Amino acid sequence: MNKSVSTILRVVLGILFVAHAINKFQTGLPNISGWFQSLGLPGALGYVVAYTELIVGIALILGFMTRYVSAIVIVLMIGAIFTAKLSVGLLGNGQMAGYELDIAFALIALHLVFTETTPLSLDALFTRNREQ
């Protein structure tokens, strides 16, 4: 696939993850923690997910450790599907979104796991510096 398309996918996925993290912070991490508890998960996991989404998003935007960060995205999306979204179906139930977006995010991340380092990334900069 064209490296510029991969770059766009990486940056857009990063922006979307930052947006999701910001939404969690604006909603209030105690509220997110409570929602996680309502799903039968540890409340502290809400904090971990919010900060992970923020860090992952920034790393993707910058192109830093893209393959590893993309693997984390896949794990997050699988976790979201099986803990929160599976019961509401692919398209949701009118009160909650389904898991279609989670699948799309995971597939973009899977593409990035197997893509060569893209230009305009810290990964490319570090690779060039190592080769010199």
Automatic annotation (TrEMBL):
<protein>
    <submittedName>
        <fullName>DoxX family protein</fullName>
    </submittedName>
</protein>
<dbReference type="InterPro" id="IPR051907">
    <property type="entry name" value="DoxX-like_oxidoreductase"/>
</dbReference>
<dbReference type="Pfam" id="PF07681">
    <property type="entry name" value="DoxX"/>
</dbReference>
<keyword id="KW-1003">Cell membrane</keyword>
<feature type="transmembrane region" description="Helical">
    <location>
        <begin position="45"/>
        <end position="64"/>
    </location>
</feature>
<feature type="transmembrane region" description="Helical">
    <location>
        <begin position="71"/>
        <end position="91"/>
    </location>
</feature>
<keyword id="KW-1133">Transmembrane helix</keyword>
<dbReference type="GO" id="GO:0005886">
    <property type="term" value="C:plasma membrane"/>
</dbReference>
<keyword id="KW-0472">Membrane</keyword>
<keyword id="KW-0812">Transmembrane</keyword>
<feature type="transmembrane region" description="Helical">
    <location>
        <begin position="103"/>
        <end position="126"/>
    </location>
</feature>
<dbReference type="InterPro" id="IPR032808">
    <property type="entry name" value="DoxX"/>
</dbReference>
<comment type="similarity">
    <text>Belongs to the DoxX family.</text>
</comment>
